[in-house]
Amino acid sequence: QVHLVESGGGLVQPGGSLRLSCAASGFALDHQPIGWFRQAPGKEREGVSCIKTNDGSTYYSDSVKGRFAISGDAKKNTVYLHMNNLNPDDTATYYCATLKSPCDSSGWIMDYWGQGTQVIVSS
């Protein structure tokens, strides 16, 4: 059974940093692309990053490119999202997910995901 558990969210001031974690069970990450998504109230869900955990290739949306970094640890079966230089527009609930589509496709489609972790960027 596939389970994904997000953690690491919290309240941070603009310009600050957070590291989100996605602990996976029921499958091995090293052969599974994983995406990070976010959704704020009243906003559409946005895919922000994707990683091919077998070779480490990473992908980012324009909104986070240069500020966020996705990484994976196959031994720990965990994917991370390092978020830097955060701004209020980054406020959202963040989800990690297995994908129905490849990272290099035109869109990232969630398959399985966890309960999410909330990130609030505010002074």
General description of the model:
- With 123 residues, the protein is mainly beta.
- It contains no helices and eleven strands.
- A hairpin with a 4-residue loop joins strand 5 and strand 6 (57-60).
- The N and C termini lie far apart (40 Å).
Short overview:
The chain is 0% helix and 51% strand. By secondary structure, the protein is an all-beta fold.
Uncertain runs are: none
Q: Give the termini distance in whole angstroms.
A: 40 Å
Instruction: Supply Rg.
Output: 13 Å
What's the helix-strand series? EEEEEEEEEEE
Average residue-wise pLDDT: 94
Layout of SSEs?
Elements: E1 3-7, E2 10-12, E3 18-25, E4 33-39, E5 46-52, E6 57-60, E7 68-73, E8 78-83, E9 92-99, E10 110-113, E11 117-121
Parallel strand pairs: 2-11
Antiparallel strand pairs: 1-3, 3-8, 4-5, 4-9, 5-6, 7-8, 9-10, 9-11
Keyphrases for this structure?
123 residues; mainly beta; seven-stranded mixed β-sheet
